[in-house]
Design a protein that fits this description.
Elements (H helix, E strand, L loop, with lengths): L4 H45 L5 E3 L2 E4 L5 E8 L5 E10 L7 E8 L4 E8 L49 H19 L3 H6 L14 E2 L5
Antiparallel strand pairs: 1-3, 1-7, 2-3, 3-4, 4-5, 5-6
Length: about 220
């Protein structure tokens, strides 16, 4: 082709169209695998933070004071006995963005375990949230603690929990996400309300069918 402005525009347009079609094809091919991977990670996290269960309710959307709508999954054992719930929660105040967790609570509101779903914190510092807050060293662990009975904020702010060294912002965000999870759980747990342990402020009552997650 002769080198002139018209041909240059035509060539660039063809390249742009080709690049657009290529990206669209890649997105179409990867969309479903990414969705399946995310779903598998979510279900594995639910199993990780709860005791073995027979039945799991469909997700309940629960709005908390931060304005976020969190997802809660109530779990049941033999004879449909309520075991607790897993709450998918988030804080938008991480050092590098959102921190998303799955937090499990027993019938009394005690923390069973947690799993980090998403985070973009600083490698070697904020990324330690994956294990730091379940490590039985000094006052790091939140496992077994109750957000009503325990002050689950960093010691620098007058709380009971040791922040990650040189990563106080990440630590604060992590504990904020845990508190948000408890608020969602407390407002939707009849057991906690009967015991007078609920400390949340908003509610969103939903009735859902149940789903089954295969136990390994």
């Amino acid at each position: 082709m002769q080198s002139n402005f018209k041909n240059m525009v035509l060539s660039l347009s063809l390249i742009a169209v080709f690049a657009g079609l290529t990206l669209a094809s890649v997105y179409t091919l990867t969309k479903e695998p990414i969705a399946l991977s995310k779903q598998a990670k979510q279900q594995n996290a639910i199993r990780e933070v709860l005791p073995a269960f027979k039945r799991l309710d469909e997700a309940e959307k629960v709005k908390v004071a931060t304005g976020d709508s969190l997802e809660m999954y109530k779990a049941y054992g033999n004879n449909d006995t309520f075991l607790g719930a897993a709450v998918e929660t988030v804080s938008h105040n991480g050092y590098s963005g959102d921190i998303k967790l799955m937090v499990g609570f027993d019938v009394k509101g005690n923390i069973i375990n947690y799993s980090v779903l998403e985070q973009m914190e600083t490698p070697g510092l904020g990324t330690k949230i994956v294990d730091w807050f379940r490590t039985e060293t000094r006052n790091q662990s939140i496992i077994g603690k109750n957000p009503v009975k325990n002050n689950l904020t960093v010691s620098k702010d007058g709380g009971e929990i040791d922040a990650i060294t040189a990563a106080t912002i990440s630590s604060r965000a992590f504990l904020e996400a845990v508190q948000n999870a408890y608020d969602a759980y407390a407002e939707n747990s009849d057991m906690l309300k009967r015991d007078g342990e609920s400390g949340a402020t908003e509610t969103n009552d939903n009735k859902n069918d149940s789903i089954q997650i295969k136990q390994e």
